[in-house]
Amino acid sequence: MYLDEEKISASGNDVGTFYEYWKYITDCFITISFCAEKENLHPLNNMPMWAYYANNHHGICVEYDVCNPICLYPVSYEQERNPMSVVLGNFMALSLDAVNGKISGQNPELLKYQFLILNLMCVKHRSWKQENEFRILFPYPRLQENGKRVGLKDIGLEISAIYLGKDCSTRNQNRLKSMSINLGINLYKMRVNNQSRKFDMCFDRVQ
Fold first, then answer.
1. Cα angle vertex 123, ends 88, 94, to 5°?
2. Could you list the pLDDT tens digit for every one of the 207 residues in the chain?
3. Fewest Cβ atoms closer than 10 Å to its Cβ: which of 86, 103, 134, 175?
4. Backbone φ and ψ of 111, nearest 5°
């Protein structure tokens, strides 16, 4: 998304205020990204995922069940960026009215623009479309702090399994095996499926 500075200035508003308000909004959320299952491609067979996010098969993939999707938003993949000046401006005005008691915090227009703002935080370029990504937007004002831990129950998730990359080190495998036993979670090790013509993978249970 982008701010149309000319349109903001033409409306008599201060461009800097818009940027400050947008930064304030984004700083109030912790963003967590996930790759979701597609009909024709399970995430475990997603080679770019293992390359980009799992240190070229040396890392791990954690599988989650969604218990409550309240914080979960699908990512939209677009060819071009869209102006957000009108949406942000209306949200700013309605939020101020709600703070001053002029409208309810459950005002339909306010909720509509709140929903649009959240969706603006879930847009990526179309070149990433193969990721089939979802994002969790968890409201947590950080006040310039980063790296906060968030409980899985708070974001509506539950770990269902852990998958080791095919080149995961023995040291890390042993550590994760101990952790999975303590948590009561199944642990699997990925390997290339040499019995298939496809570029796919399979996995074995780590005992």
1. 20
2. 788 898 889 888 899 999 999 888 888 888 888 887 666 566 688 787 888 889 999 999 999 999 999 899 999 999 998 888 889 999 999 999 999 999 999 999 999 999 999 888 899 999 988 788 899 999 876 655 666 778 899 899 999 999 999 999 999 999 999 999 999 999 999 998 888 787 778 899 998
3. 175
4. -65, -35
Amino acid at 171: R
Residue pair 186/161 in contact (Cβ under 8 Å)? The answer is yes
Domain that holds residue 108: 5-205
How many Cβ atoms sit within 10 Å of the Cβ of residue 75? 20
Count the domains in the chain: 1
Q: Which residues contact 117 (CB under 8 A, 6 or more apart)?
A: 25, 87, 88, 91
- Nearest C-alpha neighbor of 30 from the set 84, 75, 71, 91: 71
